[in-house]
Amino acid sequence: MITVENLHRHFGGFHAVDGASLRIETGSITGLIGPNGAGKTTLFNVIAGRLPPTSGRVTMDGEDITGLPPHELFHKGLLRTFQIAHEFSSMTVRENLMMVPEGQHGETLWNAWFGRGKIAAQERELAKKADEVLEFLTISHLADERAGNLSGGQKKLLELGRTMMVDAKIVFLDEVGAGVNRTLLNTIGDAIIRLNKERGYTFCVIEHDMDFIGRLCDPVIVMAEGKVLAEGSADNIMKNEAVIEAYLGTGLKNKTVGETA
Question: From which domain of life does this come (predicted)?
């Protein structure tokens, strides 16, 4: 689905992404791991149109999408979430979901004056869809809660729910487990797996929790210093000496070797 070819993103003399090439296959849940500063989030930002690349190419289903802005990629079904959730804190959870689809009737002045019936009918449909999404995510009890009152994990579920309000094809999840307790992280993981299996979503997941990555992701891609270091199953990645040294640390590598001896 997504092909990244020799991608570079420089900030002055700093090469945040330095010739990365990878593929995200349709129907996969691909993990993207690496130490802080490896270039993972910058790679996401370039693919999702938030940053232009310095050079290189990104294609989606064979179409060149390099440098397209986020709103155009949104229409193509490419969405991303963020390390810190971006909710409308004063609105309810249901209202946050209802805002996602573009081109709503109430957005035009003409309809606001003369098309109130059309607006009301569309809002009923959106509210119904939002409630279906909340039920899917097992957070129906939060529908009328102000989004600003949610816990970190609940906000991550809300962000996932937003992707369900449109026809998403591929979703980039940036540290979905950051600040989330284990129970809610399991709920998020269950939702991702169901969206993948039941609705055909493709995911690419940045995450530091290797138990979470191992449960969900195949393949796993490792980045270090802006480059792709390794790719394979979670089990094989965890046994890769280059990955152990670059991602998990030299100390852990030596400890692992010592325990084996």
Answer: Bacteria
Pairing mode of beta strands 14-24, 2-11: antiparallel
Q: Contact 171/151 with Cβ under 8 angstroms?
A: no
In the chain, the domains with their CATH numbers are 2-87+166-248 (3.40.50.300), 90-149 (no CATH)
Compute and round to an integer the Cα radius of gyration of the chain.
Answer: 20
Give the model confidence (pLDDT) of 11-51 as tens digits: 999 999 999 999 999 999 999 999 989 999 999 999 999 99
- Is 14 in a helix, a strand, or coil? strand
Given phi > 0 = left and psi -120 to 50 = alpha, else beta, which region is 73?
A: alpha
What is the C-alpha to C-alpha distance for residues 33 and 258, in angstroms, rounded to an integer? 25
Q: In whole angstroms, what is the distance from residue 163 CA to residue 74 CA?
A: 10
| CB-based contact 148:90 (threshold 8 Å) | yes
Q: What is the pTM of this model?
A: 0.84
- pLDDT (tens digit, 9 = 90+) per residue, 135-182? 999 999 999 999 999 998 899 999 999 999 887 899 999 988 888 888
Q: What is the DSSP letter of 218?
A: B
